[in-house]
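Fig. S4 source data, part A: sequence.
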Amino acid sequence: MSLEETAQQIATLLEKYSELQQEVKDPLGDVISGQRDAIGVTSEVPSGYSKVTEGAASVLAVVNPDGSQEAFYNPAQVVNRDLSIIAIRGYDEMRKESPHKKGRSKDEGLRILEGLSATGLRAVRYWKEIPNISKIIVNDLLPSAVAAIKRNLEYNGVPQSKVIPNCDDAVSLMQRLGQQSRSSLFRTTPGVDGITKLLSSEKMDVVDLDPYGTAAPFLDSAITCAEEGGLMCITCTDCDVLCGVHPEACHHKYGAMSVRAKYCHEMAVRILLGCVERHAARHGKFIKPLLSLQIDFYVRVFVRIETSRAESKLSIGKLGHLLQCSGCAAFRVKPIGTVRVEERSRTERNREKQTKKQKRKRSNKDPEGENEVKVAKADAEAEVEAESPSSPTEPVSAAMSSVPCRKEPRLKYGTATSVKFCSSYKPATAGCNICNSSVWVGGPIWTGPTHDKDYVSRLIAIADAEKENFAAYKRVRALLAAARDELPDCPMFYQLAALSGTVHCSTIPMAKMNSALMNLGYRTSQVHCCPDGIKTDAPPEVVYDVMKAWTKELGCDTHPNNAIGHAKDILASPQRVNVDFTICEGSDMRAKVTGETKWGKVYVPNWGPKPRAKGNKTAEETEES
């Protein structure tokens, strides 16, 4: 068969394919997203089902005879879904305003993948409450869950040509979507129980992962199928693993050791971000965290994925190890590596070219190469002397701002290098210099900013404009306000009750603690995951000097309990700074003073993790169980 005949047959098949598509055209295919119609909310409930309404969507729930769910649904996750809708809308606005980079046009509609959908409630809400969506792929591994998804899409009047149910393994699906294919056809093949399976290769603007437990197995394939500058929304519900209860499980899932400490919830967020960053670096990509929160029993992060091998090399300065004292609340974060970016002028570059030309001339005059070795040795010694760290090495957080995203920085390895590696541990003989106890090592964790302040402010504006459309508005608004005001360059925090408990005194008020540190020239802020937590750039020695002054003011320094244990070592050491507890402006961060709530109440009764969905069961299976 000739090439012309083959091309003619392919053209004929494409014509038949387009005709079939027109014949089976979805009658709702012309509906656009973001309309917030009442279909489903006001519809009658079929017999044998119960209706669950959330936002602009309603789903039909089926409960098995043994009490298990057909598809997983947790009403406590309404905060997660409301927050995700606001976050994706903010991302779409930011995507349109940002300069166009490699990838799709920013004027095209959003393509969203929900890899583990369960009931399809989230996808229905996305379609009804987020404008400018071109396609949503709603995937689940269980055929019963995909059947429930199709039922709920029909019940809510959502076009299945735009919101496409799919039954497949999430990892396999994302790997196929991430493949570079020349085919532009949106191909499917019959799968389980007649449910179609997608075979296309098409990158997604938003990849949403909300598994039961850890999202670690899905990260690698999710990064490959994300569009350039795409948004990844990741949930992990195994907070016991991330918060230090099972450090061995945390290590084999996330590649990091968790530490049991008062700041464990923020550590959970940073362990997840560090894991995502390492997965992205393997593909020459890097992450930009937009919003990272620990809520109730789960962690939810929103990060952008961008491609740059130069930036991915700088990840050594964004990751660090956590050194936690076993006797007191003191901690330190040590980066894995530091980066110093060398800026060279045109004159320096021309001088280097002239030096190379002179070396080539010398090598031509000296065929034996003796002079070349001497010259090379002298040049190397001069280079070491010129680039020796006479000034302290800048951390990556200070150097990254001067490195363009698309420009390869000069990174050399050796004595006179732009990248210098630090040790990942503290010597065992050193211990804590505050209470002389041993030090635990955790991590690696993400040490960079966990929020984008401008992005969070954008989300607050979106939430305030449509507060009546979100059932969990108060809680979401409080979380966003707390995240916006956090110090971006201070990993971890101190809990005031833990600080006071170490030296056996009543808890120091937050206004007093903030004022003492502010009067010494340090910055402070609250933290979104702990009402009595305080972030500061003050070193642990200064923080405990404040606690020594507080015990003296209360007269607790002579308490019998402070004559033994770690409190004795802490109070016996000299106080290095003079502490002033005079109240400063802005030190009292209570809601009745600032007028802004930062911790909302959980209003769902019996909230918490729910049992895993088991799908539909027959009567025989129910009797056997």
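Fig. S4 source data, part B ends here. The first helix runs from residue 3 to 23.
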